Amino acid sequence: MPYEPAMVTENKPTDRLVIGSQYFLYFGVLGMYLPFFNLYCYQLGFSGLNIGILSAARSVAMVVFPLIWGILADRLSARRSIYILCSFCSALIWMQYLFTVEFGPMLAITLLYGMFYAPIISFLEAFTMDILGKEKKSYGHLRVWGSISFIVVVLVLGKVIDLYSVEIIVVLILAGSSMFALISTQIPAMRPLKRKRLSGGAKNLLNGRVLVFLFCAFLMLVSHGAYYGFFSIHLENQGYGSTFIGLTWALASAAEILVMIRSDQIFRRFSLESVLIFSFLVAALRWIILFGAQSTAVILVSQVLHAITYGTFHIASILYIDRLTPDKAKTLGQAVNNAVSYGLGLMVGFFFNGYLYELSGSNTLFMISSLIALAGGLFFWGFCLVDRRRKA
Predict the structure, then answer these.
(1) How does pLDDT run across 263-294, given as a tens digit for each residue?
(2) How many domains does the chain have?
(3) Which of the 8 DSSP states describes residue 5?
(4) What counts of helices (H) and strands (E) characterise the chain?
(5) Which residues contact 147 (CB under 8 A, 6 or more apart)?
(6) Rounded to the nearest 10 degrees, how much is the dihedral formed by the CA atoms of 100, 103, 104, 110?
(7) Which label site among 82, 84, 274, 282 has the fewest CB atoms less than 10 Å from its CB?
(8) Is 4 contained in some domain?
(9) Within-domain flag for 63
(10) Could you tell me what percent of the chain has a pLDDT over 70?
């Protein structure tokens, strides 16, 4: 049965402009946070375990609250209202980082911030799927604006931090979050279709294919915990400055742009399952390269693989969950995917790597991450083989 969204919009060109601007600002803020917030905490004197706990706390919220907000949004048909509310509240809560540098208060702010920040990206993905309609495979054409923003931010911000201080990111993230909140009010209102009898509902999220994928996606993001949590610290400990650190993050994001703009061609040629399996295997390769990397050139080459480990994996995941999710649980489907992978997966990855960093340093983190990604890929590949034979 072809997909027919439970909520529809006119699909005006301005709708795509609003969605593109939301991706631009969301990932621009992420370009400040991911490379430099943990580095900011490190320079405040926090230990690796402290940093791991802060990162894990944010991820705890990413596990719980997308599900709560997603259920409310689908049940009350209030996705847009909740999206706007969370955008404004998260910006206001972030402001509190301006007033403390102590671990305890920062942990409390992180948890509260995560409550409202957590559902934003899954809601944005659901809006995008609705607006694209039958053109879902061109998702990358909108998402690419996030990658462009990320590149610009990390390149410019790395140089600014070298000139001034990493503390500047707190104010800049507040500015970017405030702009995001203001533009969120322009997200198009979705009107319900005349109700048809829909089967399965949210219970279909518990079928075997969804559960296996979510487990494997969880492993994929656990393997990314070392990268998102400690890559910048790893480079600084090797003697690199903020400008080079920003360059490596920019290169990774630049590599994914080609995937984003060619996403429709990629997914016409290859199945979602094949793209996902390939992404797992490349992730295992990428982390093992970073484990042994001693030269600048090798580090930069490994960052190009981000096109696969994040770019193709992320797009394929969004499309795969959308394909498996019943019409009346689209928001919840994306929220569950985001909660299990970027929430629970990164939470475990951050906490585990924060603990391990204190024991063995950053190199060991990437070796273990490689094994975790490989395990996820082999498990998903094995399930796909069994599933294919059962259908034959």
Answers:
(1) 788 888 899 999 999 999 999 999 999 988 87
(2) 1
(3) -
(4) 18, 2
(5) 27, 253, 254, 256, 257, 260, 311
(6) 80
(7) 274
(8) no
(9) yes
(10) 91
